[in-house]
Amino acid sequence: MKKYGVRTAAYAYFSDAVAYLDELNYPVVIKASGLASGKGVIITQDKEFSFKALELMMKDKIFSPGAADEVIIEECLQGKEASVLSVFNGKEISPFLSAKDHKKIGEGETGSNTGGIGVVATNPHISEAIWQDFDENILTPILQGLSAENLSFASVIFVGLMITEIGVYLLEDNLRTGDPEKQSIFTLMESDFLETIQKAIKRESIEISSKPAHSCVAVMDSGGYPRPYRKEYEITGLETLHTSYYIAGAEKENDRWITSAGRVLNIIGIGTSAQEVYKNAYEAVKKISFTDTFYRKGIGLS
Ligand code: GLY
Questions:
Q1: Which one of 161, 175, 185, 229 has the lowest number of neighbouring Cβ atoms within 10 Å?
Q2: Ligand 1 pocket: which of 83, 175, 176 to mutate (most atoms <8 Å of CB)?
Q3: Ligand 1 within 6 A of 133 CB?
Q4: What local confidence, expressed as pLDDT, does residue 302 receive?
Q5: Which of 116, 33, 32 is nearest to 82 (CA)?
Q6: How does 158-188 read in b/e, with b if 16+ C-beta sit within 10 Å?
Q7: Domain ranges of the chain
């Protein structure tokens, strides 16, 4: 990011961060620099908590062994999150509609982080000016970097963004689709997804068109998620739905769907306003039941 001028948070690497804890502007983000299944991040509000976080990561090795032999301490960006999925054909990046993921388990953005517990598309915080800022300071420099490094693969590129008061910043960058972002975005696609991917592989130009509509994905979870939870409960009510849904964590046994993961179902509401999609998604959610079911209620309202 630094090499190609993609706007991202200020950061530094440390193999011994304790000596610097007095000098930081809190809150800060402490990250394991190695692989930690996407979970190696702790946000700390003060010096004491930072010390504890460093102990957990570096001494107690709560992530995989070696993942936090070195840590990254990063500026904590405040604002509204956004996700943008794009298709890269080796020469050009073509974005889909923007989306807003909700990662915290609790209402009002409280509690533990999840993989994503609800999404709306398009992202209500992305104005034309913000999109232009994103294009100039994130998407274009990423493309310039890919080209300068002779990286001409075909792939989905998924960026996680923070819209702050002073501009859009890149939080993360992945060569995969986001979950449940993709469910909200592909639902609104008018272009054919398979054709789009085939064109990317053939290095052809891509134009993605989407319906002039909104969508909301409410994720129904196993009670307890993202901490340990129980599963293998029967899901009932799916046959009564008049809206689309995706099975995320369930398995079919004879004619019955049985829960098999933390995030179980994605229920989709589509409509012409944020209020309408919210109503459509949550009316459908209320028709479904399984033991211990849990869902976050305010998706799209913040
Ligand atoms: N929902 C966030 C992700 O897929 O990484």
A1: 175
A2: 83
A3: no
A4: 67
A5: 116
A6: bbbbbbeeeebbbbeeeeebbbbbbbbbbbb
A7: 11-75, 80-106+125-201, 214-294
Encoded tokens for 169: 């910043």
The percent of residues in the chain predicted with pLDDT above 70, rounded, is: 100
Find out whether the beta carbon of 116 lies less than 6 Å from any atom of ligand 1: yes
User: Measured from the CB, is residue 178 less than 6 Å from ligand 1?
Assistant: yes
| Mean of per-residue pLDDT scores for the chain | 95
Number of the ligand 1 atom closest to the C-alpha atom of 38: 5
CA distances 243 to 156, 240, 282, 293, 296, Å, are 27, 9, 11, 19, 19
Q: Which two tokens stand for residue 115?
A: 């993989």
Question: What's the CATH number for 11-75?
Answer: 3.30.1490.20
Per-residue pLDDT at 146? 97
Cis amide prior to 180 (ω within 30 degrees) = yes
pLDDT < 70: residue spans in the chain: 302
Class level of CATH domain 80-106+125-201 = alpha beta
State pLDDT tens for residues 197-243.
999 999 999 999 999 999 999 999 999 999 999 999 999 999 999 99
Second CATH level (architecture) for the domain 214-294: Alpha-Beta Complex (3.90)
Name the pTM for this structure.
Answer: 0.92
Cα–ligand 1 centroid distance for 21 (angstroms): 30
For residue 112, what pLDDT is reported? 86
Looking at residue 149, its pLDDT comes to: 97
